[in-house]
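User: Run a structure prediction on this.
Assistant: Running it now.
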Amino acid sequence: MDRYEIRVAGHLDQRRAHALGCEELRLLPDGDSLLIFATVDQAALYGLLTRLRDAGLGLVAAERMPASAGRVNGGASANARSKEASDVAD
């Protein structure tokens, strides 16, 4: 399961964040909110972004969080996946 940090404009209350399926909510000093979500696949991520849009929230940024060290996904360690991603970017 992938985890994403999604930054939206404005401060959300805990009840609204929970209704959107947010696992963790951080209110940032600049007035934005950072929402942490876990999604099972890309379709779930697109559904989440649609719910944010439908709620009238302004999307500032969305970023996939790196897997925690030692977590295994599909037989590859998190460090191996990170190296593969950096090799592709080069």
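The CA atoms of residues 67 and 78 lie 6 Å apart.
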